[in-house]
Amino acid sequence: IEVATSRKGIYLSQRKYVIDLLEETCMLGSKPIDTPMDPNVKLIVEDAEPLNDPKKYQRLVGKLNYLTVTPDIAFPVSVVSQSHNAVIRISRYPKGNPRRGLVYRDYGHRRVEGFSDADWAGSLVDRRSTTGYCVFVGGNLVSWNSKKQSVVARSSAESEAMAHTTCELMWVKQLLTEMGFVDSSPMQLWCDNQVAIHIASNPVFHERTKHMEVHFHFVRENIQQGLISTCHVKTREQLADIFTKSLRNGRVQYLCNKLGRIDIYA
C-alpha cells in the first residue's frame, strides 16, 4: 500500500501492486474495462470449463484478495472461484485507473455508521443470498465485507445482514474506545428494507418472523441499550449495494465516489 499525505488528508493506493499484477498475468497490454463484473452474466458452475492449470488460477485469486483498497471488487472476488473468465475481467478492471485509492479526510465529526444490504436468493446455483456491509468512522470508509450466506434464506436475508453489520459496528466502537476516541451518540445502522427495520424495532414477534428472531433479537438489544439506531436509506443511496451484486458502470462510479475511492492525480 502506498501512502500520500497532505493538509487535505491521507491517501492510500496500490498502483505498483496493480501494475505488478498485470505484468505477472501478461495483461499490461489488455484493454481496460469499466466494471469488475458483467451485470448481464450469471456465473453457473455447470457452464464452466475445467482449467488446465488450477494453481495459476488460485494464485491470481489470492493476489486479487490483496487489493485491499479496492472495495468495489469485494463482491466479484467472492464469487470468481466459479469462472476463470470472470477472474480475468476483474484483473483488467484496475488497469483503467491503477492510481485510484481511498482518501481519508477530516469531516469535523467522529460519527460511526454502517450500511447493510442483502441480495436475497441472488445465486442461480443454490439460491443462497449474499450479504454485505460497509462501516464509516468520521465519514471515512474503514471496513467492508461481502459474504455468501451458508444456508438458503426462506425470506429476506436482511435480518442476518443487519446482525453482521451490528457486530462490526460494535467491534469498531470498542476499538475506538480503547484508543481514547469516545463518542456517546448511538451508531447509525442504515438499511433500505423498511420491513427489516420495523421488525428490529418491534418488541413483538409473530409466527412468520420466528425464523429470523435470533438475528433481530441481537440487533434490538443494541438498539434498546442506545448503542445503535436504525435508519432507512433510499435504495439509490445504499452504499453497501456494491458488495452484494454486480452493477453497471454509472452505478459503480457513483458508489465508488461515495466510498471515498478517487484518483488524487486526476
TrEMBL record:
<protein>
    <recommendedName>
        <fullName>RVT_2 domain-containing protein</fullName>
    </recommendedName>
</protein>
<dbReference type="InterPro" id="IPR043502">
    <property type="entry name" value="DNA/RNA_pol_sf"/>
</dbReference>
